[in-house]
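Page 37, top half.
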Amino acid sequence: MTSHFLADTAVLTRRSLRHIARSLDTILTTAVMPIGFMLLFVYVLGGAINSGTPSYVDYLLPGILIVTVASGISYTAYRLFLDLQNGIFERFQSMPVARSSVLWAHVLTSLVANSISIVAVVLVALVMGFRSSAGPAAWLAVAGLLLLFTLALTWLAVIPGLTARSIDGAVAFSYPLIFLPFISSAFVPTATMPTPVRIFAEHQPVTLIVDALRALFTGQPLGSGLWGALAWCAGILVVAYAFAIVAFRRKIS
């Protein structure tokens, strides 16, 4: 049973990845938009922002990586919604295909696509002057945290992909996620914000995740920040997975 599930998931994941490779607009949106943000903030707005660091791109990159993931997972909801509308799920149910493999294929596709976008953003940041004192272990920790964050948001994206009544509704959920980093420590220190905004910014998950990534990149002490970031990612993942599975079972029942 397990080998059957894994084989079906691998086949369906390759199918989804081929669709992405043929969709230039998906690639442009998930990779180029965050890179555009990074260019805008560093070369246009960066001179007016006091981040307290010698290089603004070093300060900015963790937040841009969060924006990259937030914009990329909207396509999970989009592709899932289209599969439902096109009757793909019904066709697969009439075939000897593990039901859950259809869902996991979309999740794995999101992990692969977002990983490629993240690598592209980091490479551009290096060209722009980003430098890190992180060793191999710290880079692995960065990759692990971003992977966990991507997985959590991907399962969150599955819910509107399964329950939305229109394509606009399926992708609109990602807009607040893209906007959330702007009310965090991603672009400016929270100390510069008005008190009500600062209180919100300091206690929302993006700030904890961004600060943990920034500390890993710069070799600073992590303290309890990393555990807080991991707790937020794990909590979102567990809740989103539970709701997504319930929505999936209702949809295929």
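Page 37, bottom half:
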Amino acid sequence: MFKNKVRVVSLCLLVAALTVCTESQTESQTKSQINLAVDVATFDQAIKKEMAVEGQAVLLDVRTPEEFKQGHIAGAELMNFHDPKFQARLGKLAKDKTYLVYCRSGGRSGKTAKMMKELGFVRVYDLAGGMIDWNKKSMPVKKNQE
């Protein structure tokens, strides 16, 4: 009789623990919005929506300074993916902001978005096809004048 009570109590504790784990996993999935490889239209909408409130979002260009000078999306901040301190700099960014990340073709920005997810960032958009697709869609580009 005692063994049966122990089994019932153990089973109840197991069910309760699984319920708590499932709820917190669902809650963290709801909070996390890592959008890998979004198309140009979605990325443009995200820029307009997320950048509407100053300080809420960061448009992050992870190309080289030379690529950036040739043309970038207005309002973008440059953070060179090939900089040896790139990952350390990435880790210092505020994790509660929305980040819109792009590069030339989507490779570096995709890797960056994955790193950001691993670092605990919760809202990241990665532009699929990068500036190549952005330019194909004739989206606006700002060029630096030297």
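Margin note: Residues 11-15, 17-30 have pLDDT under 50 and may be disordered.
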